[in-house]
Amino acid sequence: MIGKAAFVPLLLMAAGFSEAAFAYVGPGAGLSLLGALWGLLLALGAALLFLVLWPLRRMRRRKKEQARAGEDTGPAQGEAEPAGPEQEHRYEETESARARRMDE
């Protein structure tokens, strides 16, 4: 194994003896590289934005649910009470649906 002290002179000699490679890299390769880089950066940015906004959305949703829970669940002013077994059944289904929503 070559020691660290010998590595730098060997690297300088290798760089000094190398010849120029007369190759052409067109603008398409650079644009492709930039497109891939932009795609990667946008994907990472979207992921970070999602991670930051997710707790805020949950807090807003819970706040709305708590506000709905505090509302009066009775009929609105001017609204008639349910009459008849069919209408009472619909009203009970609505109440049970609200209870299920509150449990979630």
Helix-strand blueprint:
Layout: H1 4-17, H2 27-70, H3 85-103
Note down, in words, how this protein is organized.
The chain is elongated and about 95 Å long. The model has no long low-confidence stretch (mean pLDDT 80). The chain is built from 3 helices and no strands. With 104 residues, the chain is an all-alpha fold. It has a domain at 26-64.
Low-confidence stretches: none
Number of helical elements = 3
Work out the strand percent.
under 5%
Would you tell me the structural class of the helices and strands?
mainly alpha
The residue fraction in helices comes out at over 70%
Radius of gyration: 34 Å
Number of strands: 0
Main pleated sheet: none
Topology as a string of helices (H) and strands (E): HHH
Gross morphology is elongated
Average pLDDT, rounded to a whole number, is: 80
Alpha-carbon distance between the termini?
65 Å
Give short descriptive properties of this protein.
elongated, 104 residues, 74% helix, mainly alpha
